[in-house]
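Each letter names a residue; structure tokens follow underneath. Both lines appear below:
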Amino acid sequence: MSDIERISSADASARLSDGWTYVDVRTVEEFEAGHPAGSQNVPWQLRNGNNPDFIRAMKAAFADDAKIILGCKGGVRSLKAAQALVAAGFTNVVDQRAGWDGARSPFGQVLEKGWLQLALPREDGAPAGRSWIDLRSKAAQAAE
């Protein structure tokens, strides 16, 4: 599935004012250390491997036609997550290709600056209602 639109960090930031929601798919620890302001955390992977609740949590939190920007550290996990969401029926998903830390070459050189390097709005911690704990709880309630 290479038809996922991949946008820059600056484009992602601009889309937030147009009704898009940023979903950070990094781990809870990465998210809490710093994330785009207003973003929600639904990890693609957990410490012990892939997150088996990823699609269920996203479906509980968002309509299939919600405008969703996915981001991670450097664009790899978010692209995989975007592909999975499209396969699950989501229709307005884009990938922020440079992520939080920037897209890097195999040698670690920054190829494209990420959210952090561009000094775009950020916050730390686990914001109420937008943390993985809260979103996972919402998904569990929806399954009941």
